[in-house]
Amino acid sequence: MSAEDGERNEASTVEALSAPAIRGGLGPEAARLFRVYRTISNMLEKRGYMVPKDLRELTPNLFREKFGENPSRDNLTILVEKADDETNQLFVFFPEDEKVGVKPIKTITDRMKKDNVSNAIMILRVNITPFAKLALQEMSDQFRIEHFKEAELLVDITKHQLVPEHQVLTPNEKSALLKRYRLKDNQLPRIQPNDPIARYYGMKRGNVVKIIRPSETAGRYVTYRVCM
């Protein structure tokens, strides 16, 4: 998807957010948060987390009933666990600050320590300060805290018609793949950690993703990329 396509999509999203019929009766700010919440729910499910039914089937009306006309970002906090490992949990936080600094990071990590959770995603209203980024790097051995801007989650990129299906391999699946083709990690094509798809799936360095594209001749065409 090109930058020009991205600009067109963002413009059409802004236009959609201003249309009351499409917002389902939500105000512009609540409608924006609803779209972000829906994308996050899809993202968590595709990462293998158990997403409650009420989040998976959320509608604008249900969102308003659950969070009100002017949702408090603190009330939007999500806690999920992996389907195959209930000890592998992840928080999603929605800090109030337009530009998240060190203080909100401290509040978040205190909550994570209290609940013994080491993974989290922060949804930023606008951005994060350089000092906060540095703080996240310094605590990366203890906590993994990803961050996305709200604007990045207004549309679910995996639902775009030009984006093929992606499946992140388990460690066992990766080992079997490398053994089958007698390959090493660095012999696979690469995907950067900051690639939008790699970020969507929470890929770490060394993870391998299977990419499935439709093919007119073979039915489907499968490739693999390693996150490096």
UniProtKB/TrEMBL annotation:
A single cellular component GO annotation: RNA polymerase III complex
Superkingdom assignment: Eukaryota
Subcellular location field: Nucleus
One matching Pfam family: RNA_pol_Rpb5_N
SUPFAM superfamilies (UniProt xref): Eukaryotic RPB5 N-terminal domain, RPB5-like RNA polymerase subunit
Domain RNA polymerase subunit H/Rpb5 C-terminal: 155-227
One MF term in the entry's GO annotations: DNA-directed RNA polymerase activity
Keyword Cytoplasm annotated: no
Domain RNA polymerase Rpb5 N-terminal: 29-112
Gene3D superfamilies the record matches: RNA polymerase, Rpb5, N-terminal domain, RPB5-like RNA polymerase subunit
Keyword terms, alphabetized: Nucleus, Transcription
GO BP terms, alphabetized: transcription by RNA polymerase II; transcription elongation by RNA polymerase I; tRNA transcription by RNA polymerase III
UniProt keyword annotation of Nucleus present: yes
Family: Belongs to the archaeal Rpo5/eukaryotic RPB5 RNA polymerase subunit family.
HAMAP family referenced in this protein's UniProt entry, alphabetically: RNApol_Rpo5_RPB5 (MF_00025)
Name of the featured protein: DNA-directed RNA polymerases I, II, and III subunit RPABC1
Species of provenance: Entomoneis paludosa
